[in-house]
């Protein structure tokens, strides 16, 4: 009968090395979290935040005006510079220049008046047939910020 005697000293070295690696990783995480707490409050906040606008309400005034109530829920100050209003047939009024709203700070409610003036008007560049807001119809409004961020909203008059 052949009896084997195992030498357990090799297993103890492996377990000790593994325990040492776990301790080092754990301490690294603790130092990282601690340094974020210390340096996070002393470093200046980044200037480039995120622009997020949420449509809270809309109000139509006549057949050519709509007011959007937008909440800036992002972390950046937002200034609006361009808007597009499109009906379901693809006809579009584009206001690319001479219009600006803002700046709107984070958490601020933006009251944004929009107008779709019939030709010959310098305020709207028309693609397709000019239209007016009709009760019950659905319109897509795209607003562009100064940072070229596009916000699309669907409204029903």
H/E element sequence:
HEEEEEEEEE
Work out the number of β strands: 9
The class by helix and strand makeup works out as alpha+beta
Distance between the termini: 95 Å
What profile does the largest beta sheet have? 6 strands, antiparallel
State the shape.
Answer: elongated
Computed over alpha carbons, the radius of gyration is: 30 Å
- Briefly, what CATH class of the largest domain? Mainly Beta
Average pLDDT figure: 86
| Secondary-structure arrangement, i.e. CATH architecture of the largest domain | Sandwich
Total tally of structural domains:
2
The number of helices is 1
Helix % is 10-25%
Runs with pLDDT <50, length 5+?
Answer: none
CATH topology category name of the largest domain: Immunoglobulin-like
Estimate the strand proportion: 35-45%
């Amino acid at each position: 009968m052949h009896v084997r005697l195992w030498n357990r000293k090799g297993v103890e070295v492996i377990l000790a090395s593994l325990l040492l690696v776990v301790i080092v990783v754990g301490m690294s995480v603790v130092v990282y979290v601690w340094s974020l707490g210390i340096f996070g409050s002393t470093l200046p906040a980044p200037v480039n935040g995120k622009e997020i606008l949420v449509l809270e309400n809309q109000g139509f005034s006549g057949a050519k005006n709509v007011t959007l109530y937008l909440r800036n829920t992002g972390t950046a100050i937002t200034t609006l510079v361009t808007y597009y209003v499109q009906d379901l047939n693809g006809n579009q009024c584009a206001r690319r220049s001479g219009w600006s709203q803002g700046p709107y700070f984070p958490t601020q409610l933006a009251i944004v008046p929009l107008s779709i003036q019939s030709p010959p008007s310098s305020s709207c560049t028309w693609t397709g047939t000019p239209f007016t807001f009709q009760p019950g119809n659905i319109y897509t409004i795209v607003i562009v910020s100064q940072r070229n961020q596009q916000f699309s909203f669907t409204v029903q008059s």
